[in-house]
TrEMBL record:
Protein name (record): Serine/threonine-protein kinase RIO2
InterPro entries attached to this UniProt entry: Kinase-like_dom_sf, Rio2, RIO2_wHTH_N, RIO_dom, RIO_kinase, WH-like_DNA-bd_sf, WH_DNA-bd_sf
CDD domains: RIO2_C
Reactions it catalyzes: L-seryl-[protein] + ATP = O-phospho-L-seryl-[protein] + ADP + H(+); L-threonyl-[protein] + ATP = O-phospho-L-threonyl-[protein] + ADP + H(+)
Chain residue ranges for the region called Disordered: 343-419
Biological processes per GO annotation: maturation of SSU-rRNA
Biased composition (Acidic residues): 358-382
Pfam families from the UniProt entry: RIO1, Rio2_N
Keyword Zinc found: no
Cellular component GO terms held in the UniProt record: cytosol; nucleus; preribosome, small subunit precursor
Length: 419
């Protein structure tokens, strides 16, 4: 599903209140009954005004009417949740306008947004369940077995909370990550890193030193007690820092490559039961990529989990793996989120083409992708082409910088209400 902000400008202050009331009711009701919406929205105009608002919201697909045997009620849609999050960001002056999508993961939409000063940032909208809900049976089973957590929106909100929390903790610890700016519901805002993902880089002057810096960064995370869990070429952005040596008369420029790591909802503790498996998987991902892309093979084996484990919390590194529980995300919530993310991983393995096309990923060295003929994928594909975005292709040679965001195409968010 895509983010369409057009209906936003037509919503009145009352519409927003009713939308917020449906959201509030959703916390305890699968279907929110009308009397509850009336109570929560606290509108002076009474039930006829509430009905009018409900009809406006339903027309824009922000809420949906559900008919059940016991009672009729309403539920919030992903579109409604998007609007509530955008509304909250706009009210806090974090978002003034929304631009194009820069990345389309199957679990998230990545949009360029700007605040009222024109500063461009990244809005990440978590969309767990987007693909699986329609196509994969196992997830429906999961939902059926977990009726209390039957909402993918709830899981997406948890994913965003967890991601913002770790982004903030890592940023404070001086790890190169985007700067966290704000969080609302299933969305986070962070700084835009003007750097391509490693995936897009076709050659580097010194693969050995880039490899070493990626492993070093990974070991720093481990000292903080954390395993990234998806440490791969899509989730590492490579920033080019150009510097000139003042002692050097001919002004020769030196390019330093700094990895910036992103994407944290699946992060686990070094003490997780499957820590070693995740650790090895991450390390192997980087090794395999360097072999395939840069024909580089590390001369020393490892790093190995059993050695690295001994370094957790050493050298003055603050442990960050307990941050989650301290934040109010309970063990049960973390487990639910983990289960949902693992299911996505399974689906990715079973049906890689559906995910690859969504990532704008059109080539791979040795994989035969079937194009997913799905309507939504086509739409996403067109959107990407429209944005002139050829993400995923290894087209960048370090030394030739390609800017990420442009000022064009940012659409101002119009919201009538400033309550
Ligand atoms: P997903 O969970 O769907 O994989 P990611 O957080 O990995 O989402 O983001 C998907 C893509 O969007 C990344 O591979 C990257 O190209 C781009 N992206 C995400 N965050 C940023 C950022 N802060 N700055 C620049 N690009 C970003
Ligand atoms: Mg990612």
């Amino acid at each position: 599903m895509k983010l369409d902000t057009r209906a936003m400008r037509h919503l009145t202050a009352e519409d927003w209140k009713v939308l917020a009331a449906v959201e509030q009711g959703t916390k305890n009701h699968e279907l929110v009954p009308l009397p509850l919406i009336e109570r929560f929205s606290r509108l002076k105009g009474g039930s006829s005004l509430v009905s009018k608002c409900i009809s406006t919201l339903a027309k824009s697909s922000l809420i949906a009417k559900m008919k059940e045997a016991k009672y009729d009620g309403y539920r919030l849609t992903y579109g409604g949740l998007d609007y509530l999050a955008l509304h909250s960001h706009a009210q806090k002056n974090h978002i003034y306008s929304v631009g194009s999508r820069v990345g389309v993961g199957k679990e998230s939409d990545i949009m360029i947004v700007a605040d009222h000063t024109g500063a461009q940032q990244i809005l990440k909208i978590h969309r767990l369940g987007r693909i699986s809900f329609r196509t994969v049976k196992t997830n429906r089973d999961y939902l059926r077995k977990n009726p209390s957590n039957s909402s993918w929106m709830y899981l997406s909100t948890l994913a965003a909370r967890k991601e913002f929390l770790f982004l903030s903790a890592l940023h404070s610890a001086g790890i190169p990550v985007p700067t966290p700016i704000a969080h609302s519901r299933h969305t986070i805002i962070m700084s835009l890193v003007d750097a391509p993902p490693l995936r897009q880089i076709s050659s580097v002057p010194d693969p050995a030193s880039l490899y070493a810096s990626l492993i070093e960064l990974y070991l720093r995370l481990a000292k903080h007690g954390l395993i990234h869990g998806d440490y791969n070429e899509f989730n590492i952005l490579i920033r080019e820092d150009v510097s000139t040596n003042p002692d050097d008369d001919d002004g020769t420029e030196t390019i330093t490559l700094t990895p910036v790591v992103i994407d944290f909802p699946q992060m686990v503790s070094m003490e997780h039961v499957n820590a070693e498996m995740y650790f090895d998987r991450d390390v192997n991902c980087i090794k395999t990529f360097f072999e395939r892309r840069f024909h580089f093979k590390a001369t020393t084996p490892g790093p190995f989990y059993k050695d690295v484990r001994k370094t957790v919390g050493r050298d003055g590194f603050q442990r960050l793996d307990a941050a989650l529980e301290a934040s109010g995300i309970t063990k049960k919530m973390a487990k639910d989120l983990e289960a949902a993310i693992r299911q996505h991983e399974e689906e990715k393995k079973q049906n890689p083409s559906a995910y690859e096309s969504g990532d704008g990923d059109e080539e791979d060295d040795d994989e035969d992708d079937d194009e997913d003929e799905d309507e939504e994928d086509e739409e996403e594909q067109q959107q990407q082409e429209g944005a002139g975005d050829k993400e995923g292709e290894p087209q960048i040679i370090i030394g030739s910088k390609a800017p990420l965001g442009s000022e064009e195409g940012l659409e101002k968010l119009s919201i009538n209400d400033k309550t």
